[in-house]
Design brief:
470 residues, Alpha-Beta Plaits, 6-stranded mixed sheet, 14 helices
């Protein structure tokens, strides 16, 4: 094993020397508009995969862009010894769409000002992915006894529909002792956070068609059914928009409530309702959330019902007095541990059918929730790594979002999964003017190097125990 002096003696110098190269590589990735939600970006997705695979090959890894029925997955291996433990690092390289009208600058043009890097994908998730890669290079150069594998996905932003196909077909190549994910957000700058849970997701399309064409409201208003109005009524019966409370019987039956210890850990994250509203530009929040603990539980440990859009009728300037013939509502439920997406899908479908049998409910994207542990050797390793890099004890939290690949890896790889994210609320995750910064990059490289050292010790100890038991 590399000595502590040998591992950390040159780390700060390495980080300073790597800055220009990191920025150049991040710029190259950011300027590829790898928007998985847009089918017209297929060529950009493929190009992004090839560039990323090239980065891994330059690192000394074997790397390939693996085809799936959808978008590909970049898979790399950097093996330093047959008898050494393996850590698999997961990130994604696809990004959310970006409306140039909302941005200060072109979203797919990398922009640097001081320590700030702006552009779509900088923080979600190209910047953190490259940060981990630079840490791996240092650890390997310093002789740390670990094998490294990389999984860089290119369809995470659309729910990872083909990730399980990739894992099933390459299960033997993907064998690993642990998994590291860097695609999560701290609650506040200056206060590290280590998530150990993710919410699941079930999305729906509610569709109602009441006649063959849009009709004149002066001639048909009154007798003609209005599909937008009827969908709004159904949605209002599903949940109370003011409190967010779902009215569907059985919806909360399986919810695993956060314990007092968990809520205390959430609160230790440095959370402030005022700063939360500021970071996300929320003019107000639901009045039923009276304390910071209420807000944190609502984000991290409670399910949701959200309306994302209603499509139908006339959307141009002024008012066109028609009765629309068709309407569609885009709905999602975020789910928490012990809730089953399939069961929730049935509950919603049956409830809507009872309220309005003409509304068609299509269950779309489906992801299960994930719950890990905030105790044990890997949690201790994460705690030590965060404190080493950022000089503060991290809080253990749950993420409000979903990462479909994590649930798949938990199911098939059967290895401990640790989250070491670097994004901050002000980085604009999924928002306009997305950005990342050198402070999180330089601290992140330190964090990953320390984490690698910690888990190499864990794995070596486990191997010694296995040998002694034989």
């Amino acid at each position: 094993m590399a000595s502590t002096d040998g591992l950390y003696g040159g780390l700060d110098r390495y980080i300073r020397g790597a800055r220009r190269e990191f920025e150049d590589r991040l710029a190259a990735l950011v300027e590829i508009p790898s928007v998985s939600m847009d089918p017209e970006r297929r060529a950009d997705i493929d190009r992004c995969g090839e560039v990323a695979a090239g980065y891994l090959r330059e690192l000394g890894a074997t790397a390939e862009v693996v085809a799936t029925p959808g978008y590909p997955v970049v898979f790399g291996s950097l093996l330093t010894g047959e008898d050494r433990p393996t850590v698999t690092i997961y990130n994604h390289l696809d990004v959310q769409p970006a409306d140039p009208a909302e941005w200060r600058r072109a979203p797919f043009a990398f922009y640097k000002k001081g320590d700030r890097y702006e552009g779509r994908g900088t923080t979600d998730d190209k910047g953190p992915g490259l940060t981990a890669m630079f840490a791996v290079r240092y650890a390997v150069e310093r002789g740390l006894p670990l094998n490294f594998k990389f999984i860089w996905e290119l369809e995470e932003e659309i729910g990872s529909p083909n990730f399980e196909h990739f894992v099933r077909r390459h299960r033997d190549q993907l064998r690993t002792d642990s998994v590291l994910v860097s695609d999560t957000i701290w609650i506040a700058r200056g206060k590290p956070a280590v998530p150990y849970g993710l919410r699941g997701l079930q999305t729906f399309l509610f569709t109602l068609e009441t006649h063959a064409k849009d009709v004149h409201s002066g001639l048909t208003g009154g007798p003609a059914r209005n599909p937008i109005g009827e969908l709004c009524q159904v949605i209002a019966e599903c949940y109370d928009a003011r409190t967010g409370r779902v009215k569907i019987k059985g919806f909360y039956d399986d919810v695993r409530r956060a314990t007092r210890a968990e809520v205390e850990s959430f609160l230790a994250s440095g959370f402030s309702t005022r700063e939360y509203q500021k970071a996300h530009e929320l003019k107000s929040i639901r009045p039923s959330l009276r304390s910071e603990a209420d807000v944190l539980k609502a984000v991290m440990a409670e399910p949701t019902f959200e309306v994302h859009g209603i499509v139908g009728g006339y959307a141009g300037p002024g008012v066109k007095t028609i009765v629309p013939h068709r309407a569609e509502a885009k709905i999602s439920t975020r789910l928490v541990p012990n809730q089953d997406p399939a069961r929730i899908g049935r509950l919603v479908r049956d409830f809507v059918r009872e309220k309005n049998p003409d509304v068609q409910v299509g269950a779309m994207q489906s992801l299960g929730p994930f719950l890990g542990d905030f105790s044990g050797p890997y949690a201790d390793a994460a705690r030590a790594a965060m404190k080493f890099a950022f000089s503060k004890e991290p809080a253990f939290t749950r993420e409000g979002g979903s990462i479909g690949a994590v649930v798949t890896m938990q199911k098939h790889l059967r290895a401990p999964i640790t989250f070491l994210g670097l994004s901050l609320p002000e980085h604009g995750y999924h928002a306009k003017n997305e950005n990342y910064d050198w402070g999180q990059t330089s601290g992140g490289i330190k964090m990953f190097v320390r984490y690698f050292e910690e888990i190499s010790r864990i794995a070596a100890s486990q191997q010694r125990r296995v040998k002694s038991d034989r």
